[in-house]
Amino acid sequence: MAAGAVPTPITVTVTGAGGQIGYAALFRIASGAMFGPEQPVALRLLEIPQGVKGAEGAALELVDGAFPLLASIDIATTPEVGFDGANVALLVGSRPRTAGMERADLLAANGAIFGPQGRAINDHAADDVRVLVVGNPANTNALIAQRNAPDVPAERFTAMTRLDHNRAVGLLAEHAAARVADIAGVTIWGNHSTTQYPDLSHATIAGRPAFDVVGEEWGRGAFIERVANRGAEIIEVRGGSSVASAANAAIDHVRDWSLGTPPAAESGVAPWTSVALPSTGAYGIPEGLLASVPARAVAGAWQVVEGLELDEFSRHRIAASAAELAAERDQVAEMGLIPAE
Ligand SMILES: NC(=O)C1=CN([C@@H]2O[C@H](COP(=O)(O)OP(=O)(O)OC[C@H]3O[C@@H](n4cnc5c(N)ncnc54)[C@H](O)[C@@H]3O)[C@@H](O)[C@H]2O)C=CC1
Ligand SMILES: O=C([O-])CC(=O)C(=O)O
């Protein structure tokens, strides 16, 4: 690109853009939080007819934000139009859980959304499309979308466990009275559900093993329970599911994917984050399941952090969450939501 030339806008399609997470995410995307302060964005808001007014209202307010990086705003009501030329697809649109519901209850309600969206991404999105599924049950919805998009490389489909990751880091920092910036090596393994395994066995706080600082009993007990049930805790306290922290995590996820995982802080521990990616069999997770693993983004692609030693506790927890994902996969296969192998 010639010096001083303006980069081509990145087209970001946000489904459920008229809903709560959409509302919290759009303004930050427009402000440059996702791709940096030099990169223009074209926003595409995909909604169903009942949600269009919300998207229209958000679009009016986006104009009123006078964001220098916002190249255009379009509203679509079909996935074919909504994903046309999309470079980044944030699949948020789906029904949120309310008090007393488990994620499995959402499979039937939301699974049907992601097949047609996967097909539209396959047929209409840009060749470099990158997909992040936020709508729950996120991992299995992402599997449905991915399996319905056979022409898109499987690893371009991801599901969001960055919120769990950020929760784990935030709660560890709070408990240890440490700085977030001093924490490294936290991993969320498995499903974005209560079977997830927030793992501190490789974590460090200012270079010291986290278990030496907070104790293994807390790190393998109350900590895991708190992180895995944080979504329900938020629903109980706020009266609705996480919104701003979810939007924040989605932006963190796509920003790292596009710009790379930031370099190590002073503690020197090579950083990683947590991403649900189609498994290639690493760490004993059955191939194809979208399970959360430790990963870093390099040159626009996620790389799984390899070679971490897992003790019996960790292996058991990872296998249990992977088994839940396999059961969800079998359930949606029975429902005809993913094509037969
Ligand atoms: N992975 C994660 O860490 C988290 C996931 N979530 C999930 O995110 C999803 C959205 O949450 P909220 O924004 O709070 O819900 P919301 O109900 O405020 O918004 C959802 C929006 O999606 C729209 N929608 C429904 N079906 C659609 C379709 N087929 N195409 C396009 N849009 C569609 C609705 O009209 C609505 O405007 C929920 O499934 C929630 O459980 C929420 C927090 C964290
Ligand atoms: O718990 C929910 O339903 C929303 C969610 O995914 C979370 O906050 O982690």
UniProtKB/TrEMBL annotation:
Give the species.
Answer: Leucobacter luti
Biological process (GO) annotations?
malate metabolic process; tricarboxylic acid cycle
Q: Which residues are noted in the entry as NAD(+)-binding? A: G16, A17, G18, G19, Q20, I21, G22, N110, Q117, V134, G135, N136
Molecular function terms from GO: L-malate dehydrogenase (NAD+) activity
- All copies of domain Lactate/malate dehydrogenase N-terminal, residue ranges: 12-151
Entry keywords, A to Z? NAD, Oxidoreductase, Tricarboxylic acid cycle
User: Out of the domains of life, which is the source?
Assistant: Bacteria
Q: What EC number(s) does this enzyme carry?
A: 1.1.1.37
Q: What is this protein called?
A: Malate dehydrogenase
Q: What does this protein do?
A: Catalyzes the reversible oxidation of malate to oxaloacetate.
Q: Which parts of the sequence bind substrate?
A: R97, R103, N136, R167
Matches recorded under Gene3D superfamilies: Lactate dehydrogenase/glycoside hydrolase, family 4, C-terminal, NAD(P)-binding Rossmann-like Domain
Q: According to its UniProt record, which residues of this chain constitute the active site?
A: H192
Q: Which reaction does it catalyse?
A: (S)-malate + NAD(+) = oxaloacetate + NADH + H(+)
Instruction: Reply yes or no: does the keyword NAD apply.
Output: yes
